[in-house]
């Protein structure tokens, strides 16, 4: 109503008079229980200051992350193996691994190209393999044999024949893997990668091999 | 599997890791950590090489902590109501508590099995990317 009242002000004086009269009568009719002054007050031209409503900083909803952070993973000990592991439990894993390697190399035979097998083994998985340390800077590691349970960036965790979990650093040692009489040496210093990253990495052929 | 699949070695490796995780859990149900580690590496490899995992594989791995979900051993499976005459299967990981929900809809067809997901033009049909060979001891989520 106030709007209509304001709008009428812009017209010519005669028209506005008529309009005013009409509106007054209309208001009286419809709001007959209000006093005239009150009506006047209600319909007065009012300057309304439109304020920018600002109610504090809007807190952005944090994206709910699905995964765990590295810290949480460490605290939950997601990948910590218990020190007592039985070797006999992991023999089926070893069988599975042998099958996998045979599958990967299309049946190991002495005639097959050793280079091709080497390049395949580089990207293969070593979990479950029986491994022996042949050379190492630290002499106490030499000769330990066991099934690889876990391969991390710097370390192999193996289970030895005496049902003990041993942690062997890759650095400065050479491992031997035997599959069906096919003996492969793995230079640990060149292998210092996460096992998942190894499958994507390109290895350089040349390079000095140093213990 | 077709003979000329790209990244065949990687697929073999994924297959092996998944089976190894099952093998470890089957022989020693206490050893959740090792199975989880294998699943974690599997997930990472498929991430790095951008290989699609089969839904039947994906549904048995926890999204949060990567542990292998075997009903009764590392996960609980419950049937819950969700709407009228609708039930859902809720799989809860026992180590981190993350849940997966599947509607019990027998007429649901996976996107990969639908006809419109296949490329339309006939020339590229010979180059279809084969999905990962389902492992021997896989258990489908549904």
UniProtKB/TrEMBL annotation, chain A:
SMART domains according to UniProt: POP4 (SM00538)
Record key words, sorted: Nucleus, Phosphoprotein, tRNA processing
Transmembrane found in the keyword field: no
Cellular compartments per GO CC: nucleolus; ribonuclease MRP complex; ribonuclease P complex
Keyword Phosphoprotein in annotation: yes
SUPFAM superfamilies, per the entry: Rof/RNase P subunit-like
Pfam families tied to this protein: RNase_P-MRP_p29
Subcellular compartments: Nucleus, Nucleolus
GO molecular function, one term: ribonuclease P RNA binding
Coiled-coil stretches: none
Biological process, per Gene Ontology: rRNA processing; tRNA 5'-leader removal
Domain of life: Eukaryota
Family: Belongs to the eukaryotic/archaeal RNase P protein component 1 family.
Quaternary structure note: Component of nuclear RNase P and RNase MRP ribonucleoproteins. RNase P consists of a catalytic RNA moiety and 10 different protein chains; POP1, POP4, POP5, POP7, RPP14, RPP21, RPP25, RPP30, RPP38 and RPP40. Within the RNase P complex, POP1, POP7 and RPP25 form the 'finger' subcomplex, POP5, RPP14, RPP40 and homodimeric RPP30 form the 'palm' subcomplex, and RPP21, POP4 and RPP38 form the 'wrist' subcomplex. All subunits of the RNase P complex interact with the catalytic RNA. Several subunits of RNase P are also part of the RNase MRP complex.
Function: Component of ribonuclease P, a ribonucleoprotein complex that generates mature tRNA molecules by cleaving their 5'-ends.
Annotated protein name in UniProt: Ribonuclease P protein subunit p29
Source organism per UniProt: Erpetoichthys calabaricus (Rope fish)
Automatic annotation (TrEMBL), chain B:
GO cellular component, one term: nucleolar ribonuclease P complex
Region (Disordered): 113-142
Transmembrane segments: none
Pfam families registered for this protein in UniProt: Rpr2
Polar residues bias spans: 129-142
Single Gene Ontology BP annotation: tRNA processing
InterPro entries named among the record's database cross-references: Rpr2/Snm1/Rpp21
Alphabetized UniProt keyword annotations: Metal-binding, tRNA processing, Zinc
Low complexity: compositionally biased ranges: 117-128
GO molecular function: metal ion binding
Residues of the signal peptide: none
UniProt family annotation: Belongs to the eukaryotic/archaeal RNase P protein component 4 family.
Protein name as catalogued: Ribonuclease P 21 subunit
Gene name for this UniProt entry: RPP21
């Amino acid at each position: 109503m106030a709007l209509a009242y304001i709008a009428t002000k812009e017209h010519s004086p005669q028209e506005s008079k008529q309009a005013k009269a009409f509106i007054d009568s209309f208001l009286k009719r419809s709001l007959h229980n209000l006093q005239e002054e009150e009506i006047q007050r209600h319909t007065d031209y009012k300057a309304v200051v439109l304020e920018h409503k600002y109610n504090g900083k809007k807190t952005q909803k944090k994206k709910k992350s699905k995964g765990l952070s590295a810290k949480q993973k460490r605290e939950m000990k997601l990948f910590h193996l218990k020190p007592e592991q039985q070797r006999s439990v992991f023999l089926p894993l070893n069988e599975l691994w042998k099958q996998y390697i045979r599958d990967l190399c299309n049946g190991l035979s002495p005639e097959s190209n050793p280079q091709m097998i080497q390049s395949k083994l580089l990207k293969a998985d070593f979990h479950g393999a029986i491994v022996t340390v042949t050379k190492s800077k630290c002499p106490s590691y030499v000769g330990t044999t066991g099934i690889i349970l876990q391969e991390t960036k710097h370390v192999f965790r193996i289970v030895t024949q005496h049902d003990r979990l041993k942690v062997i650093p890759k650095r400065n040692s050479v491992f031997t893997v035997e599959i069906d009489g096919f003996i492969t040496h793995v230079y640990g210093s060149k292998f210092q990668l996460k096992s998942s990253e190894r499958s994507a990495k390109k290895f350089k052929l040349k390079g000095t091999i140093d213990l | 599997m077709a003979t000329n699949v790209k990244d065949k070695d990687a697929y073999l490796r994924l297959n092996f890791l998944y089976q190894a995780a099952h093998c470890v859990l089957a022989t020693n149900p206490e050893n959740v950590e090792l199975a989880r580690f294998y699943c974690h590496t599997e997930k990472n490899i498929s991430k790095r090489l951008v290989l699609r995992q089969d839904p039947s594989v994906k549904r048995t791995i926890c999204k949060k902590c990567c542990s292998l979900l075997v009903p009764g051993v590392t996960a609980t499976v419950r049937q819950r109501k969700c709407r009228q005459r609708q039930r859902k299967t809720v799989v809860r990981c026992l180590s981190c508590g993350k849940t997966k929900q599947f509607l019990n809809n027998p007429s649901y067809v996976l996107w990969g099995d639908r006809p419109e997901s296949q490329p339309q033009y006939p020339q590229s049909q010979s180059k279809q990317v084969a999905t990962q060979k389902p492992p021997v001891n896989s258990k489908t989520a549904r």
